[in-house]
Amino acid sequence: MPSIDYTLLNRQLEALLDTRDWLTNSAQTCAFIQQEIADLNWVGFYLQRQPEMLGLGPFQGKPACHPIPFSKGVCGAAARQQRTQRVDDVHAVADHIACDAESRSELVIPIIIDGYLWGVLDLDSPLPARFTLNDQVGIEALVATFQRQTDLH
Ligand code: SME
Q1: H or E segment at 81?
Q2: Which atom in ligand 1 lies closest to the alpha carbon of residue 64?
Q3: Is the dihedral of CA 133, 138, 144, 147 positive or negative?
Q4: Helix pair angle (22-36, 6-16), 10° resolution
Q5: Which mutation among 34, 47, 83, 99 tests ligand 1's pocket best, with the greatest number of atoms within 8 A of CB?
Q6: CA of 1 to the centre of ligand 1 (A)
Q7: Is this prediction's pTM over 0.85?
Q8: In whole angstroms, what is the distance from residue 52 CA to residue 69 CA?
Q9: Pairing of strands 105-113, 68-69
Q10: Taking a C-beta distance cutoff of 8 angstroms, is the pair 62, 40 a contact?
């Protein structure tokens, strides 16, 4: 797999996110990631709109699970621990929530504002171990760009 130039992607995403609006920017961010990063079958936001619950936000891919409590799945673990979850084989995770049986690996990045969990960005791939540490660092940087370019308070 050719390695992705995340520095370039970051500059492009920064230029694309030219509103301060969370809805517009989150929709654009998913579309951009889906277009630029190979071998994804789903990318989208889950937002904390009720305490300890994740509601489905803008995404690219098939219709997905909603809602997801903080106590469940890989997205719930990212929300609870406020830490990125990188899973090479989702079948090995007992409480993984299978929205699409095709998904084999997953990366979930929490979005935290002043200690409060605003939401998560979830990426799924049909390939096992699709996300390397390099991808994690690169996509975390894309999420940081989304946060910088958006009014999330
Ligand atoms: N697999 C996720 C649920 C969200 S979908 O993949 C879109 C999880 O276990 O949290």
Answers
A1: helix 73-81
A2: 7
A3: negative
A4: 150
A5: 99
A6: 24
A7: yes
A8: 6
A9: unpaired
A10: no
Ligand 1 binding pocket mutation candidate from 75, 83, 131 (most atoms within 8 A of CB): 75
pLDDT digits over 66-81, tens only?
999 999 999 999 999 9
- Give residue 68 CA to ligand 1 midpoint distance, Å: 8
Cα 130 to Cα 103: distance, rounded to the nearest angstrom = 10
Could you give the domains of the chain? 6-149 (3.30.450.40)
pLDDT digits (tens, 9 = 90+) for 72-106: 999 999 999 999 999 999 999 988 899 899 999 99
Q: In what order do the strands lie in the sheet with 116-125?
A: 68-69, 53-61, 42-50, 116-125, 105-113, 85-87
**Index of the ligand 1 atom closest to the CA of residue 44:** 7
What is the residue whose two structure tokens read 């190979």? Answer: 38
Q: Which amino acid appears at position 100 of this protein?
A: D
Amino acid making up residue 127: L
Residues framing ligand 1 (Cβ under 6 A): 42, 64-65, 68, 73-76, 96-97, 99, 103, 106, 122, 124
